[in-house]
Amino acid sequence: MTAAVLPDGSGSPDDLLAGNAGRRVREKIVQASVTVAALTSILITIGIVGSLVYRAGQFMLALTNPSETDLEEARGPIGLGNLWSDQWAPRFFEFDMKTLLVGSIIVTLVAMLVATPLGLGAAVYLSEYANRRVRKILKPVLEVLAGIPSVVLGFFALRWISPNLVQKIFDAEGQSLLAAGLGVGLLTIPLVASISEDAMRAVPDSLREASAGLGARNKTTTLAVVLPAAVSGLVAAFIVATSRAIGETMVVFLAAGASGNSAQFTVNPLERGSTMTAAMASQASGTDGTISPLSFNSLFFVGFVLFVITLVLNLIADRFVRRVRQSY
User: The sheet that has 87-89: what strands, in order across it?
Assistant: First the structure.
């Protein structure tokens, strides 16, 4: 069977749709470029995870079989019991993980108690109550707030939130986990508001019109129709903000008293403390050869634990979102 040709005999339609040879070459170049970019990102991710796993494994092996140098420098015996003590002090071979885990939980809970109601309230206002002109002004401003450097908010938490709120209201002294949590909460408000507002705006107007047709007020429509319909997006916003709060470094480093490469175990948010990220930043400042390889590898172990926590959070959120997601 011969290929079909156009009336003027210029060739088959497939040849015309494929374009000239130069166009086909450019398409192949673009395809190869994006393929290389995708593979590079995958390889970088594998490299980062592999490095965490390898170094964390070395740390665990060193705890079970410490070197003679580590035994000489340590104040006491070295073993898996060092992961469950009363402080985080890698320079003295104290690697109490519950100190960092509890500190991270306290800061994250305080941050989400601040960011969730304020961010969700801002999203409800922008989506359901603000007119178009106000929305065009406030939405870009809200997104700009999300771009404020965390070190600025950390300094704000250290110099204003801590002395003017935490110390005066709760009679606390100096830096505290509560001040750090409030600073991280301010940092995550725009994130919660932006994602939640996008999720609520994606709800079809036909649902709002049907609710109004039944005589429901705007408040009832928002609470009984819009929020349940946008629950998958709201949960996604909450999980993203939680992951952001857990992974925040500079605000906690400045406001929680994490400097000094040492943190005592505490469950009191009014006391000094540290989180996993702040402890890594504090300890990394001494990686110029002044710390032992065991203490250096402890940073990778903490990073691996943080990676597992955020991965589990995202998997749970993804499963929940898939279960409650509704298509309109």
Answer: 94-95, 87-89, 263-264
What CA dihedral angle connects 103, 184, 278 and 309, to 10 degrees?
60
pLDDT at 181: 92
* Cα–Cα distance list, 274 to 74, 105, 251, 296 (Å): 22, 10, 11, 18
Classified as helix, coil or strand, 63 is: helix
Structure tokens at 148: 């404020």
Alpha helices (H) in 97-226, listed in sequence order: 97-124, 132-145, 150-156, 167-170, 177-201, 205-213, 218-221
Per-residue pLDDT tens for 102-136?
999 999 999 999 999 999 999 999 888 888 888 88
Q: Give 270: exposed, middle or buried? Use CB within 10 Å, 0-12, 13-18, 19+.
A: middle
pLDDT bracket for residue 288 (50, 70, 90): very low
Average pLDDT, the chain: 83
For 324, residues 6+ apart whose C-beta sits below 8 A from its C-beta are: 231, 232, 235
**CA nearest neighbour of 178 among 103, 121, 125:** 103
CB 61 within 8 A of CB 53: no
**What confidence score (pLDDT) does residue 40 get?**
95
**Gap between the Cα atoms of 252 and 43, Å rounded:** 31
CATH code of the domain occupying 80-324: 1.10.3720.10
In angstroms, rounded to a whole number, what is the distance separating the alpha carbons of residues 273 and 107? 10
Structure tokens at 50: 């592999």
Instruction: List the chain domain ranges.
Output: 13-65, 80-324
CA–CA distance, 51 with 45 (Å, rounded to integer): 10
